């Protein structure tokens, strides 16, 4: 048995052995046929996870590099409206402000986005909408189809962060009217950290800015991506590409529908445990919003400290996440992304339940509730 910490944070997630092995091999030429074939095959699988037939490229950089690529290529000097109900929505607004003029429509973290205010901004001439599909910091899933519809109605581009939804939850980029979408390798894809994939639809290509960044110039990615063998403009993180390719093979073997169903079941089991414990889920959802299927955010009960809760869980070799920024000490988060399953979830929930009770909180039996859900 490998005695490694079990990462149940919302990314990075545990990497299957096959995927780890793929990045330890001897170097290959990044302008040769083997790399080109691996890149092309990875793109083919990723397109199915994005729900798109549009162009898709892989950037050597984390998810934020993908977010910046989207804004820098399509948002320079544009009127951007950023929907914000958590840390990553805020990040999108901050990136937008470096390139264009941003109106941030802010809701409390973990509460619904203001779609009426969005429509007003679009009516008033906003050209780009940014939204985080799965707001990991608060455990809320935002309404991509509704926002896509509004963006189309007013002829704006819709740029979506799918960093913690794509590969774990249903994303239908083309159907929903998403023009640019981004995923990160270390989340639901269960690959190592360090790559972002970005898909770009026709409407976005038609509006690409003349003044673009150099390293993240998506027109350059398109040019190199059209060559045979398929290439990237600059030397890519080859070992990470090979690992991501292996991760995509595993995703195909599982099947997308099965993978999404597994993610939903895992998150549902955590929510069932929370209910049985008497622990409040953090997000406030409405008919347009949902609980995240990849990261569950819960309030830390009165009388329990973040330090004790996560500290006790860590003593069992399991890491869960705390809150970010003003939510530090107020919430804890369990990631259910990638290749983890019932074994990891039951161990995590057992450790959390023990930690809650040890801190004096009279938690009910969450394990029983979660196990019922996991068995289906
Ligand atoms: C929704 C979301 N967007 C963006 C990011 C940033 O990604 P990265 O840390 O890979 O740059 C994260 C990371 O947790 C995320 O969860």
TrEMBL record:
One of its GO terms (molecular function) is alanine-glyoxylate transaminase activity. Its cofactor is pyridoxal 5'-phosphate. The keyword Transferase applies. It holds the Pfam family Aminotran_5. The keyword Transferase applies. One of its GO terms (biological process) is glycine biosynthetic process, by transamination of glyoxylate. Residues 21-324 form the Aminotransferase class V domain. It comes from the Archaea. Keywords: Aminotransferase, Pyridoxal phosphate, Transferase. PANTHER family: ALANINE--GLYOXYLATE AMINOTRANSFERASE 1, AMINOTRANSFERASE CLASS V. Belongs to the class-V pyridoxal-phosphate-dependent aminotransferase family. This is Aspartate aminotransferase. It comes from Methanoculleus thermophilus.
């Amino acid at each position: 048995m490998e005695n490694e910490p079990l990462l149940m944070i919302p990314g990075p997630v545990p990497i299957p052995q096959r995927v780890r092995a793929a990045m330890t091999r001897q170097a290959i030429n990044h302008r040769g046929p083997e790399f080109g074939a691996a890149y092309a095959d990875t793109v083919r699988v990723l397109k199915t996870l994005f729900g798109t037939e549009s162009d898709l490229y892989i950037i050597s950089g984390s998810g934020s590099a993908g977010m910046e690529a989207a804004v820098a290529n399509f948002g320079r000097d544009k009127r951007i409206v950023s929907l914000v109900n958590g840390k990553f929505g805020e990040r999108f607004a901050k990136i937008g402000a470096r390139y264009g003029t941003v109106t941030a429509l802010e809701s409390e973290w973990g509460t619904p986005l203001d779609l009426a205010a969005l429509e007003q901004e679009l009516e008033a001439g906003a050209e780009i909408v940014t939204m985080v599909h799965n707001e990991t910091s608060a455990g809320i899933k935002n309404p991509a189809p509704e926002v896509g519809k509004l963006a189309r109605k007013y002829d704006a581009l819709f740029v979506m962060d799918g960093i913690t939804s794509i590969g774990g939850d249903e994303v239908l980029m083309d159907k929903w009217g998403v023009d640019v979408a981004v995923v990160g390798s270390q989340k639901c894809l269960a690959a190592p950290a360090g790559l972002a994939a970005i898909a770009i639809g026709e409407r976005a290509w038609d509006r690409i800015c003349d003044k673009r960044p150099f390293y993240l110039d998506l027109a350059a990615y398109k040019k190199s991506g059209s060559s045979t063998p398929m290439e990237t403009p600059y030397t890519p993180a080859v070992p990470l590409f090979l690992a991501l390719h292996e991760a995509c093979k595993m995703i195909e073997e599982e099947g997308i529908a099965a993978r999404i169903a597994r993610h939903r079941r895992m998150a549902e089991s955590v929510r069932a445990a929370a209910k049985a414990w008497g622990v409040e889920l953090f997000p406030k959802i409405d008919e347009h919003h949902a609980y995240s299927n990849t990261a569950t955010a819960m309030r830390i009960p009165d009388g329990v400290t973040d330090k004790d809760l996560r500290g006790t869980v860590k003593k069992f070799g399991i890491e869960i996440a705390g809150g970010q920024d003003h939510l530090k000490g107020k919430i804890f988060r369990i990631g259910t992304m990638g290749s983890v399953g019932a074994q990891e979830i039951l161990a995590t929930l057992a450790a959390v339940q023990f930690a809650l009770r040890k801190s004096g909180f009279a938690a009910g039996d969450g394990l029983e509730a979660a196990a019922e859900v996991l068995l289906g």
